[in-house]
Amino acid sequence: MATTTETQIRFGILGCAEIARKISRAITLAPNATLYAVGSRSLEKAKAFASNNNFPPNAKVYGSYEEVLEDPDVDAVYIPLPTSLHIRWAVLAAQKKKHILLEKPVGLNVAEFDPIIDACESNGVQIMDGTMWMHHPRTASMKKFLSDLHLFGQLKSIQTCFTFAVDDDFLKNDIRVKPDLDGLGALGDEGWYCIRAILWAADYELPKTVIALRGAALNEAGVILSCGASLHWDDGKVATFHCSFLSHLTMDITAIGTKGTLHVNDFIIPFQEHESSFSLASKSWFDELVTSWDPTPSKQIVTTDLPQEAMMVKEFSRLVGEIKKGSKPEKKWPTISRKTQLVLDAVKASVEKGYEPVEI
């Protein structure tokens, strides 16, 4: 339950996308947030969504997105709309002084995201993208290891992967394969997480060069179904990632330093909601006969009372509450979103240029 000291942030949701079910639950679980309104282009659809997702009895149900943004009691909006609609609705939300939790990818390209950032800055509203794993306590534990020069050393290489095999109906009908809706396909949906993980491990230092890996799979409409890329920094760091709608469910990070290695096998959606783990090795070598490792990698277990999406809503709501008390919006989040989008744009450009290197 919320304490008396916490400001309750009232959320409106624009649209009834599948992911909005998960975030509705997260808003319900977060101690400083409350489900206040939902809007859909169909009033019936909005009513059904509200009743199916535990909206409080007094929640507002609207037959348009505009009505949610016009409601003076809505503090913040969650926008799970197709990527092509982000620029229109996020800019309008900012102009209506609504704080914005924006589903990823944040735009079809960085040129579409920049007007959203500008609108948020000029209207004093917080924006954060919906990269949930960033808010899991495990992520902070892993970062502590990566930042330890004694145990991990200097970062040398990062590999990330996010794949899941979809069915024929998805390949025909899902918005993530439609060029006019979510035209970035697997790169925007899955590659976003891989690129974010790489930047996270590299302290958000942008690579100098991005080269898409040969063999990207595209559908007839030209939307990416599977691709990968290598990223290169001036200091010699390298990273690779692979994302695909055509391979079995996998979500790995491997980060290798001069003195240690981090492995995680479920970085986006943990195997279990309230307990997760990662493995780390530090200063490992072989035994005398080269038949075993010493020391062997260790498994680190992290527990959490709140699922990661509720942790995300809680942190976002905390920032909104601070703004209500006179603080400025936290610029870290839009900056990280923009860098992720920049790398994503470079990968797409490299695919389109026949796998030529693209400078960032």
Automatic annotation (TrEMBL):
Superkingdom field: Eukaryota
Signal peptide interval: none
Pfam families associated with the record: GFO_IDH_MocA, GFO_IDH_MocA_C3
Transmembrane segments: none
Residue stretches making up the GFO/IDH/MocA-like oxidoreductase domain: 152-262
Residues covered by the Gfo/Idh/MocA-like oxidoreductase N-terminal domain: 9-128
InterPro entries: Gfo/Idh/MocA-like_OxRdtase_N, GFO_IDH_MocA-like_dom, NAD(P)-bd_dom_sf
PANTHER family, per database record: GFO_IDH_MOCA-LIKE OXIDOREDUCTASE N-TERMINAL DOMAIN-CONTAINING PROTEIN, PTHR46368
Assigned protein family: Belongs to the Gfo/Idh/MocA family.
Protein name: Uncharacterized oxidoreductase At4g09670
Gene: LOC132803854
